[in-house]
Amino acid sequence: MTLVDAHHHVWDLAVRDQDWITGPELAPIRRDFTLADLEPEARAAEVSATVLVQTVTVADETPEFLALAAASDLVAGVVGWTDLTAPDVADELARLRELPGGAHLVGIRHQVQGEPDPGWLLRPDVRRGLVAVAGAGLAYDLVVKPHQLAACVQAAAGLPELTFVLDHLGKPAIADGGLEPWAFDVRALAALPNTVAKLSGLATEADWARWTVRDLRPYAETALEAFGPARLMFGSDWPVCRLAASYGEVLDTARELTAGLDESERREIFAGTARRVYGLSAL
């Protein structure tokens, strides 16, 4: 089966600090992680293509990622960052497309999870930026916390022309074992046809040292029921996943969580959805 990893990161601390990597609990990932580090792990897992996702709200990162994709046989797409509130956002998206590797730009993401306003996505200036993302033929990745899901539903309902991709299933509180109100809001988002989600980042929302597949299953099953396999995609969230699991363990866990599906449904989750949503087949 062809495998696509629809969500991973890289960073070089000599180029740019990752200011979100703070505190002793994150010390294991406070070092450089490059494509050279990822490639042997991905190849060992028989991953044939990946999507490289932004890490910080810095404009220079996206051109760097596009150049990495242009030089890589592994990275098929880039979800980058640009200031959605800028009046020239449409022009900036066009400029990114003209850069080396610009054809690999498949989506835009902002660290909404860090915004103090739970309705940030609904601001008029942000909505104008999202309209530009749709106009550029790109997807929009949602990195949010559960209390922000209601705004995601409103934003997606108001922009049916834009595909919204929910990263990490909206970061449910797996370590606490609570399903609601997260499950209600995820179902509301999935009820909209222009939404998809990533089966990613779950182990790091659980107890890093003691999680089991059983802990993750209620959340994966909720997403499977709500979105269906054709609107779910696998992502490793490497190297952040290393706080709780290795690359291989994350992939094995996703396989176990989807073992009850038939082969065609698993193909969707592990390749088809990502290729279709991000247009990877054109690259």
UniProtKB/TrEMBL annotation:
Gene3D superfamilies: Metal-dependent hydrolases. Residues 4-280 form the Amidohydrolase-related domain. The keyword Hydrolase applies. Belongs to the metallo-dependent hydrolases superfamily. InterPro entries: Amidohydro-rel, Metal_Hydrolase, Metallo-dep_Lactonases. GO terms for molecular function: hydrolase activity. Pfam families: Amidohydro_2. It comes from Streptomyces mesophilus. The keyword Aminoacyl-tRNA synthetase does not apply. This is Amidohydrolase family protein. Keywords: Hydrolase. It comes from the Bacteria.
